[in-house]
């Protein structure tokens, strides 16, 4: 599957855009009424599509101590008959291009939330971090098939000069009967100096205008460590639900920045709920 700002509206804008795109793609093909219907054509021409909508409750921006609701889309597609791989709730949109002896590699696209003008942090600044898409590549390897997976994503913002991030995850997936799937694993996230300065830096002018904080030059490095857990319940072949929790602890310059230490919190906790609908489409 498929965080001070108008996080809610930014996510809804992305949700609407992604939803329209997915609907346009799906609308190009005749769809069967059920995900488990016998396909009219061979499995090579039948695709299984899963569309989902997520509601999250978490920090209004990275480093915030204030919480808000947000919405996110999810999308998955694979050929009928292909084994469905497990995924974590913080996986971004990806497409596998290569399988090199079990090492899966391909492009990935993610969404970054926006943040209010720093005036809201009493910094008297006109700088604003707007919502953005980022893109790059992913690689993942199953250390134990459909049980233990290592995954990394490297993504660069598509506009706005918001910098580069690298996310690393190790997940254990545990099915319980035919209906339940549990997953859990640690997280580590890194960012370059452009990302860190944009999200956690304080310029000399901003510090002078505030009068009670010092300028802060946030450098590249590890920005957070954490843990993600999820539980997925399959209601029917067409419907499933998922609940999850993502906890990240900001570290290094991300934690030391006044944006976090003075006005926010290094503890970032996100709770989410996802509803998924699965169906078939035929060429």
Automatic annotation (TrEMBL):
* Signal sequence bounds: 1-35
Q: What GO cellular component is one of the record's annotations?
A: cell outer membrane
Quote the Pfam families the UniProt record gives: MipA
Which compartments does it reside in?
Cell outer membrane
- Signal recorded as keyword: yes
Q: Which InterPro entries match?
A: MipA (IPR010583)
**Keywords associated with the record:** Cell outer membrane, Membrane, Signal
Keyword Membrane carried by entry:
yes
The family classification in the record reads: Belongs to the MipA/OmpV family.
Question: Per its UniProt record, what PANTHER family does this chain match?
Answer: MLTA-INTERACTING PROTEIN-RELATED (PTHR38776)
Name used for this protein in its record = MipA/OmpV family protein
């Amino acid at each position: 599957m498929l965080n001070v700002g108008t996080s809610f509206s930014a996510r809804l804008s992305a949700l609407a855009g992604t939803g329209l795109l997915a609907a346009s793609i799906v609308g190009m093909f005749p769809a069967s009424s059920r995900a488990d219907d016998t396909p009219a054509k061979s499995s090579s021409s039948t695709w299984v599509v899963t569309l989902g909508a997520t509601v999250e409750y978490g920090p209004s921006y990275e480093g915030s101590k204030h919480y808000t609701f947000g919405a996110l889309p999810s999308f998955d597609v694979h050929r009928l008959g292909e084994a469905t791989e497990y995924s974590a709730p913080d996986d971004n949109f990806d497409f596998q291009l290569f399988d090199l002896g079990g090492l899966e590699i391909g492009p990935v696209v993610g969404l970054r939330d926006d943040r209010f003008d720093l005036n809201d942090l009493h910094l008297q600044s006109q700088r604003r971090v707007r919502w953005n898409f980022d893109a790059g590549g992913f690689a993942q390897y199953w250390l134990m098939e459909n049980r233990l997976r290592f995954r990394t994503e490297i993504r660069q913002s598509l506009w706005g000069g918001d910098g580069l991030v690298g996310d690393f995850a190790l997940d254990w997936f545990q099915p319980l009967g035919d209906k339940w799937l549990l997953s859990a694993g640690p997280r580590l996230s890194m960012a370059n100096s452009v990302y860190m300065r944009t999200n956690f830096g304080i310029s000399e002018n901003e510090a002078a205008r505030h009068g009670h904080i010092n300028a802060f030059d946030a450098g590249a490095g590890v920005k957070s460590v954490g843990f993600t857990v999820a539980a997925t319940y399959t209601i029917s072949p067409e419907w499933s639900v998922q609940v999850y929790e993502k906890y990240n602890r900001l570290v290094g310059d991300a934690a030391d920045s006044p944006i976090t230490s003075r006005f926010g919190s290094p503890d970032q906790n996100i709770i989410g709920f996802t509803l998924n609908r699965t169906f078939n489409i035929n060429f």
